[in-house]
Amino acid sequence: MIRTRLRQLVPAACVVAASFALVACGSRSTSGNQGAGTIRVVVSTNVYGDIVRQIAGDKVKITALVTDPGADPHSYEANTQNQLAISKADLVIENGGGYDDFMDAMLKSAKNSKATVLNVVDISGKKSAAGEELNEHLWYDFPTMEKLTDQVVAVLQAEDSANASTFVANANALKEKLQGFEATEAEIKRLHAGDGVAITEPVPLYLLDACGLTNKTPAAFSKAIEAETDVPPTVLKQTLDLFNGKQVKALVYNSQTTGPQTEQVLNAAKSNRIAVVPVTETLPAGKDYSTWMTDNIAALRSALG
User: Which residues, including other chains, have CB under 8 Å from residue 26's CB and lie 6 or more apart?
Assistant: First the structure.
């Protein structure tokens, strides 16, 4: 039986409403190279929208297409309002790597030659290993977010030179936080290098790798969960044995998905008193990127003891 997935594609009208709510909060005319115009930024998810907001403040208009924590960017269906936003954008940020292919489709249709397009996978410089897919969840990789910050600042400075110093100052503050995260990862690695952990999906792997932790989850398990297919019984048993045999110190799981097999894994961790660390794929309501990642790292550090 195929598992039930918690994150469902929300109705297009709801996503549009959420998108334009974000736009309204972030709108302001700028006085740089565009004169009385406004720098229009369109991002695929609210994660990247918040990063731009931390750099630009109220100097830009941001439209995030996927804002609902229950929406799945892999299966998002764009609409005419999204297309209009893309056609007027000065800066577009997409994750790339197949995560948000709807952005590429809209960019082709928009024929917006003036927009600068930042592809985060390209910025990261990461390549998939032979026979493996690239982990697309790059917002858990802080060096990549530093590179993205630099790219965003360069674009904003070119669009609005009058506010260049503000953009640089805000970017430096954000990068200081990112570097703080990296320092904490290094400290966790010093104390826990090689410790075993388990996952349900690859969402937090960049964070776990940077902390020197060993993902002991069978690859077939996390691939099946991410692909929304049943986990083979032998693979499920291997995964459950990680907890029954106390081979891992923590289960770091995507709390935005659910199903019988992920529930089995979660119950196995709890029954064996293995620490459970919930993470999410998209920005939770009421948090910005910095507080979100601060909380994730603190929860992981606490779980490892």
Answer: 53, 58, 60, 61, 62
pLDDT tens column, 167-182: 999 999 999 999 999 9
Tell me if 172 sits within 8 A of 153, measured CB to CB.
Answer: no
Quote the pTM value.
Answer: 0.86
In a domain, 212, yes or no: yes
Residue 132 neighbours by CB under 8 Å, 6+ apart: none
For residue 17, how many other CB atoms are within 10 A of its CB?
12
Please give the share of the chain, as a percent, with pLDDT higher than 70.
85
Do the Cβ atoms of 114 and 90 come closer than 8 Å? yes
Same domain, 199 and 148: no
Give residue 170's domain range: 12-121+132-178
